[in-house]
User: Fold these one by one.
Assistant:
Number 1:
Amino acid sequence: MKKSVKDLIILENECLNDDSHKIVFQAPDVDSDILPGQFANVLVKDSQTTFLRRPFSFYDVDVDEKSFSLIIKKVGDGTRKLCSVRPGEELSVIYPLGSGFTTPEKDEKVLLIGGGSGIAPMMLMAKKFAPQTSNIHILLGARSQKDHIVLDEFEKVGNLLLTTEDGSIGEKGYVTNHSIFKEISSFDKIYTCGPNPMMEAIGKIAKDNNIFCEVSLENTMGCGFGVCLCCVTPTQEGNKCVCTDGPVFNINELKW
Amino acid sequence: MKKSVKDLIILENECLNDDSHKIVFQAPDVDSDILPGQFANVLVKDSQTTFLRRPFSFYDVDVDEKSFSLIIKKVGDGTRKLCSVRPGEELSVIYPLGSGFTTPEKDEKVLLIGGGSGIAPMMLMAKKFAPQTSNIHILLGARSQKDHIVLDEFEKVGNLLLTTEDGSIGEKGYVTNHSIFKEISSFDKIYTCGPNPMMEAIGKIAKDNNIFCEVSLENTMGCGFGVCLCCVTPTQEGNKCVCTDGPVFNINELKW
Amino acid sequence: MVKLAVNIDKIQLKNPVLTASGTFGYGKEFEDFIDLDRLGGYIVKGTTLHPRQGNDYPRMAETPAGMLNAVGLQNKGVDYFIDSIYPELTKYNSHMIVNLSGSTVEDYVIAAEKLNELEHMPAIELNISCPNVKEGGMAFGVSCAGAESVVKAVREVYKKTLIVKLSPNVTDVTEIARAVEAAGADSVSLINTLLGMAVDAEKRKPILSTVTGGLSGPAVKPVALRMVWQVFNAVKVPVIGIGGIMNATDAIEFMLAGATAVELGTANFIDPAVTVKVVEGIEDYMKRHSIDDVNDLIGALEV
Amino acid sequence: MVKLAVNIDKIQLKNPVLTASGTFGYGKEFEDFIDLDRLGGYIVKGTTLHPRQGNDYPRMAETPAGMLNAVGLQNKGVDYFIDSIYPELTKYNSHMIVNLSGSTVEDYVIAAEKLNELEHMPAIELNISCPNVKEGGMAFGVSCAGAESVVKAVREVYKKTLIVKLSPNVTDVTEIARAVEAAGADSVSLINTLLGMAVDAEKRKPILSTVTGGLSGPAVKPVALRMVWQVFNAVKVPVIGIGGIMNATDAIEFMLAGATAVELGTANFIDPAVTVKVVEGIEDYMKRHSIDDVNDLIGALEV
Ligand SMILES: Cc1cc2nc3c(=O)[nH]c(=O)nc-3n(C[C@H](O)[C@H](O)[C@H](O)COP(=O)(O)OP(=O)(O)OC[C@H]3O[C@@H](n4cnc5c(N)ncnc54)[C@H](O)[C@@H]3O)c2cc1C
Ligand SMILES: Cc1cc2nc3c(=O)[nH]c(=O)nc-3n(C[C@H](O)[C@H](O)[C@H](O)COP(=O)(O)OP(=O)(O)OC[C@H]3O[C@@H](n4cnc5c(N)ncnc54)[C@H](O)[C@@H]3O)c2cc1C
Ligand SMILES: Cc1cc2nc3c(=O)[nH]c(=O)nc-3n(C[C@H](O)[C@H](O)[C@H](O)COP(=O)(O)O)c2cc1C
Ligand SMILES: Cc1cc2nc3c(=O)[nH]c(=O)nc-3n(C[C@H](O)[C@H](O)[C@H](O)COP(=O)(O)O)c2cc1C
Ligand code: FES
Ligand code: FES
């Protein structure tokens, strides 16, 4: 699918909890080429503090309805502003950008791990591959029960496992403390997106157990399509752009 | 009345024609001290192009209802944005600013002349003094009938005279072409606000006829309360600030 | 209670928040909006030996996240200041500081001598960086020799705290800072405005009567922060940070970069009560970060 | 039909819209968004003799109406450019220009010699103003002697159109402009980024790994316009205007101030199709103002 910059009409803006909104965009040209891990770069209109676009991973793509949705967590002025958009208004979006996660094989046992706003690409991942396998396990971590969102959606697409730091739902602790890691060697592939410390810890476990592992990085971006060279991460082959060479990287490529 | 900077709730936003809106602000502290010619300096929120406040003359002040209204004509990004405010939203306003027109005597025959957005202070002027005199004549000029707004309101407060450049309503031509000027020497005082060329022409007529005349200038402003010295106009006593020494000046003070 | 007081040479400011010259009138214009005694101090209008009419209107242009001005030091002269303004201002107990400009070294010196006599004024800020006047002004501030000559001469006659305000329109601001420090400055403040220009494409004319003018506001903040950081690392005297400070976070950024105090300029136009909010915001920040003494923020950037 | 073509030395550009180096990749990254052949030309990534890894992440900070970058000239070197990139780019018929940087005069010269051989590249833009590298870069661009030495040496080996890109981080940009003109530059382009800095108050750290970086975007437009105007009045060679151009109105302001062509930088990040919109907007403006030839806009400011 060609990249494009377009003004897209907002179909829905659903408040998921205090912090996060699901925003649905009408996108006449979406097709099934969009991969989990790819992202859209959204312009924040009418903000005195937000000059550059803001990147968000695709949470869902509906090829029939010609729409896609993002989950946006409010962390600063840009995301706050985006979360106040009203249906019918338009936002300028550049999409689809970046590389996606690789496709697991039919019979492989797969663990998807999402933390914070990193859960978004995990949904698209699970949805894309759920029809082909029953072996998808989804592990989501959050601070507390109220921070866990769209759980019912995730339950539909895989075996859902949860952790919370305060133990209010699921197992208590960080995702990497979850008991599933006791049987981690039974997994063929791990895919993860979330805060860097979480992904580094997961990457280490994967390496130790010789498991294929892809992570999706969230470096700050200037352009989102490979021309400013601001989003780089060090790799075995030197600095690479997270926006075009990634955001998805195999942990073996990174210098973790 | 002390000057203050406050977030004021918008009570009403009435579209008057393609270009102009009447916006009503709830202002708990307004009192009858506010003079015609004084203005409010409004902050345009959420605009990437509008950094400084925008000044507007009081159009109406309702001491009982604790509110005031402005008439805002869309000429650029700031005014466009302000005209899209919704009732219930808040705008930051500094008010009241500037000097007002002087009060005519009870028996004086007075001509108020407004052009473009300069009609706003003429309404407050007429309203304030209508109870004291029946001798108020209000002359308003515009390009065409559709540019004449709030005429019914003006009819209530004085003898209304109109001009249009295309003759679609009132006399054809500029305000200074109006037939009332044939009897101009019968007037004691002229008060005017509008484009500078209009006010200069009126000022000349007033001088020639030895009639007291005050004009309200609309220089661009940095602060609006006398500290940046950006809004100056040359006067007989050197540069003076339009925002504090004015916006109302006697034509004899100016270098016209 | 957190400790907010800082010292600039012999002066103790009750907090690090000052106002920038040319944006705060004589202070009294703000009486309706704030209690002036809440400020660390206030720097009043640029004053010259002789009265000046300033430049022609238009003197102002709005620009992205900033503004250009070309006021050109309109003021009634130092004698008028001393006779008519100064006595009124002695009622405030926050430190009042006058910003002094001149066209010749002699002008600076004569005016500084007069200001030296004012009991309730503990300091002057020497403006060697005004981009909006034809003679003097910035000309002094953009070369070491020029800066040195004015500062040395004024230092001879002015015995209280001498703050020198630096121009950002230079290749190496640290050079000038070192030169004025060596010439006897007790503190340096920076930045004055960046020389800029605005054009009205529709009218095909410059917007300012003077074509070019001085850029201020948030747009200049990154340049100002960089220069404050450079100068902090180059001189020993306290640095006062100026440029695009709109809120407490901005003020703290300047202090972390090395500023002992800050001046708020253009922000006063947008919100005439901003200075007091910044004082409060610094206090809040210190409480949140468990910092007892604001002096611990100065130059505390971890690089 | 309005005439949009302008000349920079021997090159005719089909319209005055170019792209700024470091913001347009190698051009091909924009293929999905625009037809490159609609542009006057495109200036590709900053290239150096030897490959460079650039600076560490974070290399970017958002600032009011702008951004700071500290990329530090990450690129695979001039040989890689010539062998792997250049052949691909010859398919576009808009003029391709490479931006050349170096740490030593020798580096510049060797690379320029190689670029001189490229048939489909009519010009190079000599970057003597990069603020993000330790050696060379801006150091050459902030003194007349430095600028002269590089330009003279490159001029000896580079026979096509030589554009020299100037740094705004100087006291007097006209001095440098005159020096590079005298040394043989066929055109000057300005401005490169203003040296700035950003601080994270919460973390008490600089945002950039390099502490300071280069400011670009609308925030710098007033400074850029002023310098273009000054340089236009100081040299005879054509001036290329750069700095905060986001739309056709901005581009026209630069042309009125004296620019023969303009480069769009940061604007490409916000809207990758902006360049073509600017071409169209200039055409619209000319029609509205009954201007037949875009050359009539150059320096047409009425002062
Ligand atoms: C490829 C990619 C995919 C993403 N997907 C999603 C998603 O699906 N949902 C979602 O909610 N968010 C996602 N993000 C993160 C999102 O882009 C940022 O939260 C957003 O840009 C913040 O904008 P802001 O204006 O609200 O915050 P700002 O005001 O810019 O920043 C607020 C605070 O957050 C920090 N911050 C901002 N951006 C980042 C970042 N990229 N990395 C680390 N710290 C940062 C800042 O340092 C600051 O402290 C993604 C980011 C990337 C690069
Ligand atoms: C004391 C005072 C009272 C005013 N009262 C009213 C009022 O009651 N109703 C009303 O609609 N307007 C009034 N104005 C004018 C109003 O302030 C401006 O129209 C407004 O600031 C324009 O803002 P903008 O962002 O929409 O336009 P901008 O984008 O700033 O400018 C758009 C165009 O208008 C021109 N322009 C902007 N401001 C002025 C000005 N002050 N003088 C001349 N040209 C200008 C600009 O040069 C530009 O060409 C008043 C102005 C002053 C100083
Ligand atoms: C309208 C205006 C007038 C100014 N006049 C003076 C002056 O007289 N003397 C001076 O040293 N600086 C003057 N300045 C510069 C400010 O004091 C300050 O250095 C500059 O505006 C940067 O700070 P800011 O971004 O907070 O405004 C003036 C600035 C403005 C905007
Ligand atoms: C991310 C980034 C990278 C840049 N890299 C280069 C470069 O390699 N060589 C160069 O001469 N200028 C470089 N520049 C400067 C731009 O070409 C341009 O001069 C500057 O950004 C001002 O224009 P703008 O405000 O339109 O972006 C870079 C700018 C940015 C933002
Ligand atoms: S964000 Fe610009 S290259 Fe990745
Ligand atoms: S607008 Fe600032 S002094 Fe009048």
Number 2:
Amino acid sequence: MPRVDPSTPEGARAALTTMWTIRRFEEALEDLYSRGLLHGTNHLSIGQEAVAVGVCGALEEGDLITSTHRGHGHCLAHGADPMRMMAELLGRVDGYCRGRGGSMHIADVDAGNLGANGIVAGSMTIAAGAALSMRMQGRDAVVVCFFGDGAANEGSFHEALNLAGVWGLPVLFLCENNQYGMSMSQDSSTAGGSVAARGAAYGIEGRRIDGNDLDAVHAAAAEAVAGVRAGGGPALLEAVTYRYRGHSKSDRNLYRTLDEIESWRNERDPVDRFEAAAVASGRLTAEDVDAVRAEARDLLRDAVQRAVRSPEPTVDDLDGAAYAGRSTAAVA
Amino acid sequence: MPRVDPSTPEGARAALTTMWTIRRFEEALEDLYSRGLLHGTNHLSIGQEAVAVGVCGALEEGDLITSTHRGHGHCLAHGADPMRMMAELLGRVDGYCRGRGGSMHIADVDAGNLGANGIVAGSMTIAAGAALSMRMQGRDAVVVCFFGDGAANEGSFHEALNLAGVWGLPVLFLCENNQYGMSMSQDSSTAGGSVAARGAAYGIEGRRIDGNDLDAVHAAAAEAVAGVRAGGGPALLEAVTYRYRGHSKSDRNLYRTLDEIESWRNERDPVDRFEAAAVASGRLTAEDVDAVRAEARDLLRDAVQRAVRSPEPTVDDLDGAAYAGRSTAAVA
Amino acid sequence: MAEVMSTSRAINAAMRVAMAEDPRVFLAGEDIGVYGGAFGVTDGLLGEFGAERVRDTPISEDIIVGMAVGAAITGMRPVIEMQFSDFVVNAMDPLVNQAAKLHFMYGGNVTVPMVLRLPGGGGTGAAEQHSQSLEAWFAHVPGLKVVAPSTPQDAHDLLLASINDPDPVVLVEHKLLYKAEGPVEVRGSLAEVDAAFAGTVPRRTGGDLTIVSYSRGCAVALDAAEALAADGVEATVLDLRSLRPLDLGPVIASVTATGRLLVTHEAPGPVGVGAEVVAGVVGSEAFDHLLVPPVRVTGRDNPMPYAPGLERATIPQVEDVVAAARRLMAEDD
Amino acid sequence: MAEVMSTSRAINAAMRVAMAEDPRVFLAGEDIGVYGGAFGVTDGLLGEFGAERVRDTPISEDIIVGMAVGAAITGMRPVIEMQFSDFVVNAMDPLVNQAAKLHFMYGGNVTVPMVLRLPGGGGTGAAEQHSQSLEAWFAHVPGLKVVAPSTPQDAHDLLLASINDPDPVVLVEHKLLYKAEGPVEVRGSLAEVDAAFAGTVPRRTGGDLTIVSYSRGCAVALDAAEALAADGVEATVLDLRSLRPLDLGPVIASVTATGRLLVTHEAPGPVGVGAEVVAGVVGSEAFDHLLVPPVRVTGRDNPMPYAPGLERATIPQVEDVVAAARRLMAEDD
Ligand SMILES: Cc1ncc(C[n+]2csc(CCOP(=O)(O)OP(=O)(O)O)c2C)c(N)n1
Ligand SMILES: Cc1ncc(C[n+]2csc(CCOP(=O)(O)OP(=O)(O)O)c2C)c(N)n1
Ligand SMILES: [Mg+2]
Ligand SMILES: [Mg+2]
């Protein structure tokens, strides 16, 4: 039974809360960055919330995910504490990685998030291995492997889908197609033009879905996960969505038009759409929506306040930290 | 106009001569090896002659090929001198690589063979680059990239087909599907079960053909090459064939049955089939066939005799040889 | 003639010179076109030379480098950018098994004139997978050449020399140097720069101590030398510039004079370039002139962490070099 | 208890012990099942443990290693074979950016207990792309451990210790050692072998000279030492066994006594493991005891050629080590 069922009032409320939490989280990062409190770079998922929330909501306790450089949404949707994520981004000891990993490398293993990855497609082979592991241990878990449209052109994509295919591994490959890999449009980088269609090359039926429709994402993911869990082998979904912000801090948005961005934001925003759908279907009232928004805002405000109070790691924290066992330093 | 047209008597004779040259070449290697005169390992293409000869015959002057670890056939079919190949395998200075490369690394650049490659799928990305190069130089040439069924599971396959697809590069990807990648059957290693079908993932129409029917291979290759040359972008052919010998010297043939080998050898041998077809269609007489066989035998005998007389390289030959320009040794 | 410009502009100018002169030269990499590259190094070149010669690629590092090999052996002169040097891990086959070996392995029948630009190093908060200094690997591989400029002028010249080189060259670029400025004489043509010049050069001279580095390490070394000078310790600072081949002659000569050797670089110490410098020097005639054991000041032996304090602790700082140099001076005078 | 067996049998026996004891241990690689691996090392294990635990993979090195990382961080203990070490170039991302970094980068929340077996080295006529010794790369990477056995017993024990290790371990196997025989005590369980033992050990002792090597280089070094002994020169031969961490204590102690250091390995010299050994020793208290400059006898600095004479010339031979040792003895007595 999935953790969040948006067709129910409680589920709809939970899903909307998480979508707003993600959006507010990303906005809080922008704010911290502009105030010079955040270093490094980060990749925001504003506009893509329905994919993370729809998919992770369709999972069960014990299911695993692997995430990407644009992973804050996946992480939150899979149950992470915003305070600990924020602490990680601020480089503090209460961060999920004790401040060692930062935005691109948040792992929340207790919740089943095996980790974001700074390497495009880097987590795809790891996801296949985790899926094999679940099967060899007789665990019923499904692994969801998030990846971008750009990642689908890496050799790792191919090797992962092929191995998952021949070994029938319980993994759902979830392409979050926000239509650009940094500056390259999917058309200019992807022969054939479709990630979903590539599934056929591996005997996997790929499906393209509207990634900005939370209900649709949830339904498609739930169906795919059920098939995978039932032993049907890997599945592939391509959720079409859009990122409003630049790829990262260095992006001048020269490769797309403002009109394009505006039209997605104004006409297809996943949060707006879900609020409207949930109210129209009677799952939520307008008051519920207001309450959820306020809740997310307060949650984030609190998370930031607590995160900034977390101490910075000290250099001793590095001693022996590269190894779980006997470290280099111990002998050399 | 292709270099060899097997539908004509002259073309049929030329094609048969090359097929026999390849087979005799491989047999000569077995003989040298069993007499302790050949070191290292080698990968024989006995049984696969129709692919190399059919495809290379369909090319024009100036067209390029890239080859694999099982490349003797490609090399001969693309115009190499058996004496210089043999000298290479014997590690002599008259070898194509001055004895430095051996069986897996014969390049005959003057004839347009950019080289065999010891890395499975290693030449696939190189072929794409060569194709780009031809186009940027305004040359009309087509590049044929030979690769095995096993190679189709490497990430390089994916990246090569994708790039060739998006950039519309003039390359024919020619999968020589001998049904095994060392010990792994295509079924057990290849999700989806077909290399040709993978073309669709890149917007390329792949075709599976009978790789033991020289006329069919030639026709399909000629058509594909013409399309590529006309600017149609990359093409993909999967020629189904079979290797009679073990993968290499260490092979105990535990992964297949003797029956399977025998049935291919007895019922589908490409040389037998072409001889029968050519005689039946009146392109060759039985006497022609005998003459061709004798010619190939004599050619190889002569090649071996001359190759063994070629001197071994001396150590000076290594000085500065790793660099075309100023070498490390010159400064350090 | 020389004008002040940043390292990234100096590299950009070198690409412009080479492309204007030689139609065989082309660029390829991820987001190098309209985006101008993750660090803006190729900015403007798409407009000037068009999409055939400034090629945005899919996110496919293996074929970016493999494609370059195929183009190079058939007459082109590709100049390739890895968006971050860390991603070259996805292209080690075309680089090491192909580019480095084909000329030798094919008996001299092909040459592989390609340049691989690798923006590397830490200090930007990009963490473990976007901050590595991997040059030791390439310096270990016969068939490759490896250069690592520390000044805008050298970045300009070494890129031109690399493009002119018949062999595959890895250009180690440090991300923190991109914005560093200096006087640059923009060359008029490829031929103006001779590859043979890429040897070790002094950046400062002093008789007490020899400090060797390359890439961004030179700035650290120079700052340390200034701090030491305030104490009356005069160091020679040598910039290797080329890591393969490695030009140890000037290092040996300097150590013979000073008797003290300190090598610093950002990459971790074990089996790093510093080990080669030390081993090369002690294996030479300078051995007899060494007064104290040579010392290495290298990156901490852990992946590059994200938190600013940890990152700083992982990268050798001026004070680390100064402290090590002081210990060297204190020993065994 | 000990029986004489080849290195490949000793490795095979270690896999059997580990798999029988620990259900988390499984094998994966190309043609390791019915074929028994390109070098027969996994022969028989498929029959014994079945296809779920002895997994033939497609020819896809990136995912062989990446899959192992994913399995390791979720509770399994994969033991992976690269068919030839040269193909690890296709798997450098999962090895270096993932396996080596995840434990650190994720703040200790995961461990990566995997073993990567790398059959490497030349001498088989397999030429440039099937003969490399790439261990210097891995020894440079924090987060990896690297061991390189020279005897069948060590191959057995180090594999067991590696499987028992919570960190990713690269096991450097030399193809020419597979058939080399020696006495092996097959262990009864994983726990019998303590990872901490993997330090440097003497294979021979002598007071005139310290020769350091690892993997197949130890056999060359020992033969050279015997030849030198015939001349009255007694060498200590030290086997490093572990390249990361590197246990230089015994090397430093020995050099302090002998005053002469020779390091030999098959990999090319520049930025190789030998450089680290030399730099580590001269950076230690042994510095003051060195009578002559340390010397490295390494692979020739070119790709491994095919022709037997050229291949031989590229790999350090016993006579090369002997000649270098004689020069060392002749200097500065
Ligand atoms: C192997 C690798 N190549 C390149 C990069 C640089 N890079 C980071 S994100 C990115 C774009 C990825 O596009 P996509 O997969 O569509 O994900 P999105 O950013 O759109 O979420 C690139 C090129 C990287 N991190 N890793
Ligand atoms: C990258 C790489 N992985 C593995 C190998 C070892 N190997 C050599 S040939 C071969 C089988 C290749 O199968 P296929 O592509 O079908 O070619 P075939 O041998 O059947 O001609 C393997 C696994 C290699 N040479 N390179
Ligand atoms: Mg995208
Ligand atoms: Mg095959």
